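Structure tokens please, single chain.
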Amino acid sequence: MHGIYEHLGSEVILLKGQYYVYLEKHDATRKSVGNFWKDLGRESIKEHFMDHYLENIEKKLEDSIQIPYGEREQYIP
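Here you go.
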């Protein structure tokens, strides 16, 4: 609708609970964006509503644990 998404800068992938993945700019460009477009048909749009992001960030304010990118699948709801 508005053209392809282009990632800019580092990326934080919010996972369930206190878990998250942090990718430096170089890794974010290489890894995440391609998977986003590849899996777009299977993604839940509600996961990308601002209310969901805010709720997910709120859980991480008191306690958060960074995990490696390769382990993220076990923390995706």
